[in-house]
Specification:
By secondary structure, the protein is of the alpha+beta class. It folds into three domains: about 90 residues; about 100 residues, ATP-grasp fold, B domain (D-amino Acid Aminotransferase, Chain A, domain 1, 2-Layer Sandwich), CATH 3.30.470; about 60 residues, Dna Ligase, domain 1 (2-Layer Sandwich), CATH 3.30.1490. A hairpin with a 2-residue loop joins strand 12 and strand 13. Helix 1 crosses helix 9. The model has no long low-confidence stretch (mean pLDDT about 95).
């Protein structure tokens, strides 16, 4: 076989067993890669028959059950990273998979949403804690979670129910408690998307804790200079924590609450398997394809 006849490089997108095929969003990403002469396949991350080491790179995409099997998932991450290029980098995936990263970012002078963490098996009094912090409504959720799994909001007169939910979760896992931000009901979350540390686009998303009729689930949105500066500071602090740089990240989504004019608070930093909302900004698929080509295939 001559070099002209060589197989084009293959990229594998990691999905999960309940939906092993590409999402509609990731299909845009795949088509942008294929236009660059790259073959794209999709496979469930836990499929033992998949030869991950045969791919030029593996991209974690819709692995939407990882939070239910974190130990197994992180072992898979390490195996794949040892065999081929993995995006995002295994170090940042491990760091970002437990939301205690918010504590570390706060120590690095990033303004994050107030959060109290409780380790599995420990005790925490929700009512006392809420009074101490001046919180009314509270949100209780696992510290390892995705897609709002087991995330519930409780009003000030529902702290007994909040306590019961907290104790049920603490029996088996780490838990976090946060105040409910009224800004989320008013404006939703502002999510900024980055490809190799470069801003791609932004969307405004309805919080999972807000009634469905209050605003669209997601829509393209502008991002102010202040929001973009804040989000890039978040990326810089996060990557510095594990010895990387923002341009080492194939993808990143920074979810913000807008708490005032040009004032922002970090809600979550999504570096494991975030939805990229490419359907809202079709040209953005090109940004991510170009970023992946430069990281995985040595393109410039």
């Amino acid at each position: 076989m001559t070099s002209d006849d060589a197989e084009p490089p293959q990229i594998l997108f990691a999905t999960y067993a309940a939906r092993p095929e590409l999402t509609e969003d990731d299909a845009l990403f795949a088509r942008a890669l294929e236009s660059r002469g790259v073959r794209v396949g999709a496979a469930s991350w836990d499929d033992p028959a998949v030869a991950w080491d045969s791919a030029a790179a593996v991209v974690i995409r819709s692995t939407w059950d990882y939070h239910l099997r974190l130990g197994e998932f992180l072992r898979w991450v390490d195996r794949v990273a040892a065999a081929t290029k993995l995006h995002n980098d295994a170090r940042i995936v491990r760091w970002n998979s437990h939301k205690r990263y918010l504590d570390e970012l706060a120590k690095r002078e990033i303004r994050v949403i107030d959060t109290v963490f409780a380790d599995a098996g420990s005790r925490l009094d929700v009512a006392l804690m809420a009074r101490a912090h001046g919180w009314s409504d509270v949100v209780v959720k696992p510290s390892v979670s995705a897609s709002a799994h087991e995330t519930r909001r409780f009003a000030a007169d529902e702290h007994e129910e909040a306590q019961a939910h907290l104790e049920r979760l603490l029996a088996t896992r780490d838990v976090m408690v946060q105040p409910y931000l009224t800004a989320l009901a008013e404006r939703g979350e502002l999510s900024l998307l980055y490809a190799r540390g470069r801003f791609s686009h932004a969307v405004r998303r309805r919080s999972a804790l807000v009634d469905a009729g209050s605003m669209p689930k997601s829509a393209t949105a502008p991002a102010s200079d202040a929001a973009r500066r804040f989000a890039y500071r978040v990326l810089s602090a996060a990557t510095d924590a594990v010895g990387l740089r923002p341009n080492d990240l194939l993808y990143a989504r920074v979810d913000l609450a807008e708490t005032g004019a040009d004032s922002h608070q970090l809600l979550e930093l999504e570096l494991v398997e975030p939805s990229l909302f490419l359907l809202h900004a079709p040209d953005a698929a090109e940004h991510f394809a170009e970023a992946l080509a430069s990281l995985a295939l040595g393109a410039r």
